[in-house]
Please model this.
Amino acid sequence: MGETAEQARNEEVTMEEIVALCKRRGFIFPSSEIYGGLGSTYDYGHYGVLLKNNVKAEWWRAMVGDRDDIVALDSAILQHPRVWEASGHLEGFTDPLVDCRTCKLRFRADKLEDAQCGQKPSKHPGEGPDCDLTDPRQFNLMFETHVGPVAGEGSEVYLRPETAQGIFINFKNVLQFARRKPPFGIAQVGKSFRNEITPGNFIFRTREFEQMEMEFFVPPDEADEWYQRWIEERRRWYEELGIRPDFLRVRPHDADELSHYSSATSDVEYLFPIGWSELEGIANRGDFDLTQHARFSGEKLEYFDQQTKERYVPHVIEPAAGADRATLAFLVDSYDAEEVEGRQRTVLRLHPRLAPVKVAVLPLVSKEGMPEKAREVYESLRRRLPAEFDEGGSIGKRYRRQDEIGTPWGVTVDGQTMEDDTVTLRDRDSLEQVRVPIEGLGEELAGRLEQPWRTPKLG
Ligand code: GAP
Model:
């Protein structure tokens, strides 16, 4: 790439274009829209659900399908309140907050230079003459609610702010019932909740989001090695799914950035339209969590090696990713706009395995038996892979619609199909059209889906 990634980023796509495409094509909508919306919450529509499901499926494939040292878990969102005492979240999961007495807005005290004053949006809070900021106070990011019909002392619980703790409190279960020995991992995907003071940038930072987390339990002397291995594994995962290497980087945390539980953390960052930002964190959590839960619960959370008679508390390496944030990165990185034969085309060059729809079946015209024939082809294809039948509007319009949702292949039923049972197969990226027999089409496409893929943006 001749220009820097930063220069290319500015020319390629803005966050506004991504938001507009998501709305236009039914990926993601602002939540509660008919009531005026609820800030920074989003609803996923049909293609958004399919895309995010594919992101999560690829994560599961990498964690559980492709290896045999990680097991799956789905723990409850509501957990015993002592969990959050032991984990340190009750005391330490806070951001410093200031209120402005004039505009009534709240800001993170450590991010004032990124925020905008509510009275004078061209300035930062504290800069305008009208600003009247309070002293910072610590604000806990956990959402509190109550169990049972009576609100009050003893009924408070929290919506989990990370999926990780559900894994630590099940360590003993997995050790016993899945009969695992370190190194082994427990993986979980699910919703987490944080009362973020400054959510924003579309689905990048919201108060309700999905995490994909894996806790990898290792003998203490193997922790450093596994930490490095997981950083590389996770960077590779994004690249194999099509993110361009120049738009990805690994950034080790400075000592003053580390979370209370971490002895080392590296972020996999993506160059979003808002700049380099965290996609995923890989942390060396040491024995912090198991030791804390053992202390608070009174249970032994350790591993006893029958052969060496050695007893130890495993150390933990944690790759922690966000499903929404990864989905946003795949949308941004795949977005492309080009002119083809004098017409503008917007296309999502998504990895075929991530694409919400793999193949669209289109009758060339709505007559001469073509819609019926196309429906037959569609019915047989959809048994093999996610397919869509589309007969509304001109063929050009339908291709453009499919390009915008990232459908890698288009099958057109035309006059020749009615004579020789062949169709045209169009490739989303090269726009090449080849004539292929209907028989064996499903197999052909299923085979293509399993091929390694490289984004055409890399040339
Ligand atoms: N268990 C460790 C942990 O939760 P984190 O860095 O706070 O670490 C992990 O979160 C990932 O979850 C982040 O890298 C990000 O992808 C996602 N995430 C965190 N907060 C988020 C938010 N408010 N909105 C969307 N995604 C978020």
Observations:
- The mean pLDDT is 95.
- Residues 162, 164, 194, 196, 205-206, 209, 211, 213, 278-281, 318, 320-322, 324-325 surround glycyl-adenosine-5'-phosphate (CB under 6 Å).
- The CA atoms of residues 145 and 151 lie 9 Å apart.
